[in-house]
Design brief:
Layout: E1 2-6, E2 10-13, E3 16-19, H1 23-29, E4 32-34, E5 45-52, E6 55-64, H2 67-73, E7 79-84, H3 88-101, E8 108-114, E9 117-122, H4 125-139, E10 142-153, E11 158-168, E12 177-180, E13 183-190, E14 194-197, E15 203-206, E16 211-213, E17 217-223, E18 229-231, E19 238-240, E20 252-258, E21 261-263
Parallel strand pairs: 1-6, 7-11
Antiparallel strand pairs: 1-2, 2-3, 4-5, 5-6, 7-9, 8-9, 10-11, 12-13, 12-16, 13-14, 14-15, 17-18, 17-20, 18-19, 20-21
Helix pairs in contact: 3-4
Length: 264
């Protein structure tokens, strides 16, 4: 009799890996009541004397890796998810999602985070695409796909490709003001496209390209009737703003400047 175990608490029975809670549980299945304790460290392979029923017998014990753990421990990967302009918030989001997927056998074999870039080497292409779209749904950005030949399957007579995805995140967030085609917009939401609204209240969607982000500065409301005015952060004069908004006298607000006029 031989028992094959994995460090993740699985035993190989009837040609499949089955989880267990304790070694006691495994041995009781085989009417084994006495045995020598041993750690679940991969590489252990020995003969062990145990009490099975009323007799003392020898069984083989091997601690190795189940299919999932072998994949997790290997350097194998099917693609790289590259995230450009990755903030700590984005990296934490990606790490948490990958951690949850590990229970389903979707693993990361390498993770490189440097400056504003994060690269994830993943063992499953389908999951990688799903992860990229989850991050995009949360933070916006544009996805580019690049497939690279890395092997050829003689058994299936076909080329095998690694798929690399580049997710380029925007350098702005919701409620920022961006300029596209010489027109300023407020960012409403970030998805596959940028959902924006102009200062007349018209909403539209625009692609992630050729935009300028306007810097926000703090100013104080100096007048609300008949038109809104702020104290110019540079000249300290009371100047009008171009848009309508519900504000109060002396309220501190964030404003941007475009072509000499202010937007609150």
């Amino acid at each position: 009799m031989n028992l094959k175990l994995c460090e993740c608490k699985k035993v190989f029975l009837r040609n499949k890996w089955t989880p267990f809670n304790s070694i006691d549980e495994v041995f009781k299945k085989f009417d084994i009541t006495e045995w020598e304790e041993f750690p679940l460290n991969p590489g252990i392979k020995r003969k062990m004397q145990v009490k099975k029923g009323d007799a003392m017998v020898f069984i083989g014990i091997e601690v190795t890796y189940c299919d999932r753990c072998r994949l997790k421990k290997s350097q194998y990967y099917e693609g790289i998810l590259q995230i450009k302009h990755a903030t700590p918030e984005v990296v934490n989001f990606a790490d948490n999602e990958i951690g949850k997927a590990g229970a389903k056998g979707k693993y990361i074999t390498k993770r490189v985070v440097k400056d504003d870039r994060a690269d994830y080497y993943l063992t499953d292409q389908t999951y990688m695409k799903s992860l990229a779209h989850k991050i995009q749904k949360e933070f916006g950005g544009a996805i580019q796909k690049n497939a690279q030949l890395f092997s050829h399957s003689k058994q299936e007579s076909k080329d095998l490709f690694r798929v690399n995805l580049l997710l380029e995140l925007p350098l702005f967030k919701k409620q920022d003001v961006i300029v596209i085609n010489e027109k300023p917009y407020i960012v409403i939401s970030l998805k596959e496209k940028i959902n924006v609204m102009d200062f007349a209240g018209k909403k539209t969607s625009v692609p992630y390209k050729d935009y300028e982000t306007l810097e926000k500065v703090e100013a104080r409301i100096s007048k609300i009737y008949p038109d809104i005015e702020i104290i110019d952060p540079v000249s300290f004069q009371s100047v009008p703003v171009e848009n309508k908004k519900t504000v109060h006298i002396n309220e501190k607000v964030m404003v941007v400047q475009y072509r000499g006029w202010w937007i609150v």
